[in-house]
Write a structure and sequence with these properties.
- It contains nine helices and eleven strands.
- By secondary structure, the chain is of the alpha/beta class.
- The chain has a domain of 192 residues: Rossmann fold (3-Layer(aba) Sandwich), CATH 3.40.50.720.
- It has a seven-stranded parallel β-sheet, with helices on both faces.
- It starts with 6 loop residues before the first strand and ends with a helix.
- The mean pLDDT is 95.
Length: 276
């Protein structure tokens, strides 16, 4: 099947999402190319281009003859805010510039985050909400989204919530984040399984989301309390009022109206089918 759908460039191919998305893109029939730092490994059959987001020579090589770009590369969990901005905004600018020069007709799909929605949003985060995040990671992603929207390229932006599955260890790390952020046990998180990141990317690559920002989430946000217990952990229960009840809960109705249907509909389904 290789070459059937054309060449695709994936940045961030060795990260949490990219590692699990690449083999699925290959199965779909894409001829995959990955921009990677030296010392990183990628699946057999994927073409490696050594370099990074700010290396224009490697980007020139990486963009040759591609019909799509999936830009996953981003920096999240670090205290180095300068590095977050450099990677997430400057890096995105650099990839956009290379695409405009060397692959101007390619679809450009940017992975973003439901962290962009404001803490005190009055409803689940919607794509047309005003977003003014305070922290470096979501603020840099909003800035990167704006760069892409103004680029003149054929773009789509997929805002992902909490990503899990395929043994990635992300759910297992949740209790630590809950403790650090002092999250209320009744707070609900929107989630998405790696399988359905591929489901959404397949639709984006086919043009279903062209020119749109889209929330991608499964069918049921799950409380922190339930998520922690699902992985065998425990946490203090509480009946105190929940502040900011819609934080990190995204509205997936636009994606559904465009035909998106998650294969893994809830975290409970993932647990039952041993897909965690």
């Amino acid at each position: 099947m290789s070459n059937q759908l054309g060449k695709i460039l994936v940045t961030g191919a060795t990260g949490l999402v990219g590692t699990r998305l690449l083999p699925r893109l290959q199965k779909m029939g894409w001829d995959c190319r990955a921009l990677i730092r030296s010392g990183k490994s990628i699946p057999e059959g994927v073409t490696a281009v050594k370099g990074d987001l700010l290396d224009s020579d490697s980007l020139t090589l990486a963009m040759k003859d591609v019909s799509a770009v999936i830009h996953l590369a981003a920096l999240f969990r670090t205290q180095d805010t300068d590095l977050i901005w450099k990677t997430n905004l400057e890096g995105t600018r650099s990839v956009i510039a290379a695409a405009k020069t060397h692959a101007p007709d390619a679809r450009f799909i940017l992975a973003s985050t439901s962290h962009v929605y404001n803490l005190n949003n009055p409803h689940p985060g919607r794509e047309d909400d005003v977003v003014e995040p305070q922290h470096a990671y979501p603020a840099s992603k909003v800035a990167a989204e704006k760069e892409l929207r103004n680029s003149g390229l054929n773009w789509s932006i997929l805002r992902f919530p909490f990503v899990y599955g395929d043994g990635d260890g992300h759910l297992e790390s949740l209790p630590g984040h809950v403790k650090a952020a002092n999250w209320h046990p009744a707070m609900k998180l929107s989630t998405i399984h790696h399988r359905d990141i591929a489901t959404a990317m397949s639709m984006a690559l086919a043009g279903a989301f062209d020119g749109r920002i889209i929330n991608i989430s499964d069918e049921a946000p799950t409380s922190i309390y339930e998520l922690v217990h699902l992985i065998g952990g425990s946490m203090e229960s509480s009946s105190t009022p929940l502040q900011n009840p819609w934080y990190l809960h995204s509205d997936g109705s636009l994606a559904r109206s465009l035909g998106f249907q998650p294969v893994v509909r809830t975290v409970y389904q993932a647990a039952q089918e041993t897909l965690l």
